[in-house]
Amino acid sequence: MIRILGKYTGVADPALYDDMVMPYLSPDGRINKDSLARDLNYYVQAGQVQTPPDLSKIVTDRWVAEALAALEGKR
Known about the structure:
The chain contains 4 helices and no strands.
């Protein structure tokens, strides 16, 4: 895997991958709301975000739920 990443990305030195953390993506497409809130808090604390948005008004699982329901119906 590292060899493939080295070939097709800008990170050719295999040793650099020891220091990286690959992102987790939920197989069903849901957003990790706790992780997103921690990320937002970091940017607020760093002064990058002055007025943080209300994540509960932005992030929804509605579309994921509808897509999963549609997929279940096709099995």
